[in-house]
Amino acid sequence: MPSATLPPTDAPPPDPPTTRERIVYSGAELFRRQGYAGTGIKHIAAHADATLGSVYHFFPGGKDQLADEVLRTGGSFFLALYEAFAAAALDLPSAVRDFFAGAAETLQNTGYADACPIATVAGDIASTNPLLRETTAQVFESWLGALAEDAVEAGIPAERARPLALSVLALLEGAFLLSRSLRSVEPMFACGAAAVGLLEDAIAEART
Amino acid sequence: MPSATLPPTDAPPPDPPTTRERIVYSGAELFRRQGYAGTGIKHIAAHADATLGSVYHFFPGGKDQLADEVLRTGGSFFLALYEAFAAAALDLPSAVRDFFAGAAETLQNTGYADACPIATVAGDIASTNPLLRETTAQVFESWLGALAEDAVEAGIPAERARPLALSVLALLEGAFLLSRSLRSVEPMFACGAAAVGLLEDAIAEART
Q: Are A181 and B140 in contact (CB < 8 Å)?
């Protein structure tokens, strides 16, 4: 059963981590907090206690290649985390309620730094980096697919499941942005309750 | 009555604009598309057809001071835009439906570049620039206040109005992020319908 707190949106590297693992982990932490443009590859190297040469050894494509791997790794980790919450919960609305509550606790525990593993990058590269934009789209679609599948399993018709998944994910992403800006978990709890309400209404409607 | 399309989230400068107006307008366009870290002050000067010296003449505090003014200007403009939609609409749910539809049209008309005037900056500076974070918080609060006030006028109890305003704004911000990443207006329309549903349910509940 997952703890109520989301881990900092990426699994910590194994102990002791390899140099490559440290680089990916540092990239993940800096990208999700500062975005793509705000994070230099030298900063990532220093944060990972690695040389710039070793960063380019593992990622010959430089910052773009590293960011691509970080987005995919963070995307898979967040998906697995959602699936762990879903497996441990009584039903889909409870899983979503727990997930938002875990996100609120993580925000508080990290001084409102750790939010979605890809949103900050997704926002700042959407209009400037088509390849990374495509990666963020694939990650979002993987989450939407899992949510929509669980909605269908909960009895919601397929044509309602997709817009519902989009709304629940938008509530989560919007809540991350508002909670980080206002430095308050109020948006996360309000949006969690709204997401749960949307799911409960759709399930109740499907039953009648 | 406002057109169905949101203007590009900032009023265009008067014609002919002053140098200062061109700088603010260019800053607004670049910041909202690329974020704070991704936008250099030299790039803003070049985009505004101004010298770097004139940027520092008008904004001795440099990029931070310019960003602060851009965030406040964009925030006021977006608030006025919402109020124009609200004044022209039959009721609050219709105003919100029209606003999301206008946002979808603006995204399409600008190649998914123009979204919320402050979200991209709000995301990339939330953990790194306390002064600008506070500015984004004030702007979000001004929007939340207007939405909550209109919800109360629509008959929704005050204690429900605030979480509802947070949810509607989070749906809009999450939809901007997802629509820009997926390059599709599907998230904007799905989230608009969800926001309208939340408002209609709260109004119906308040009546019984």
A: yes
Closest CA to A28 of A50, A44, A4, A52: A44
Question: Does B163 sit within 8 Å of A133, measured CB to CB?
Answer: no
Task: Please say whether the beta carbons of B32 and B114 come within 8 A.
Answer: yes
Task: Give me B160's structure tokens.
Answer: 């429900």
Work out the burial of residue A135: count CB atoms within 10 Å of its CB; fewer than 13 is exposed, 13-18 middle, 19 or more buried: buried
pLDDT digits (tens, 9 = 90+) for B163-184: 999 999 999 999 999 999 999 9
Answer yes or no: are the C-beta atoms of B71 and B121 closer than 8 Å.
yes
CATH number at residue B182: 1.10.357.10
With both helix axes pointing from N to C terminus, report the angle between A158-182 and B158-182 in degrees, rounded to the nearest 10.
110
Nearest residue of A to residue B163, measured between CA atoms: A190
Give A167-184 pLDDT, tens digit per residue. 999 999 999 999 999 999
Which residues 59-88 on chain B approach chain A with CB closer than 8 angstroms? none
Per residue in A17-60, pLDDT tens? 999 999 999 999 999 988 999 999 999 999 999 999 999 999 99
- Domain residues for the domain of B132 are 19-207
CA-based nearest residue to B181, from A77, A132, A144: A132
pTM for the full predicted model: 0.93
Residue A70 has pLDDT above 80, yes or no: yes
Q: How many domains does chain B have?
A: 1
- Is A181 inside a domain boundary? yes
- Rounded to whole angstroms, the Cα distance separating B31 from B67 reads 8
Kindly determine whether residue B166 and residue A191, on different chains, have CB atoms separated by under 8 Å: yes
Long-range CB pairs of A24-30 (<8 Å, 24+ gap) are A24/A66, A24/A69, A24/A70, A24/A73, A27/A66, A27/A67, A27/A69, A27/A70, A28/A70, A28/A73, A28/A74, A28/A117
Domain contains A94: yes
Q: Which residue has the tokens 């790194």?
A: B128
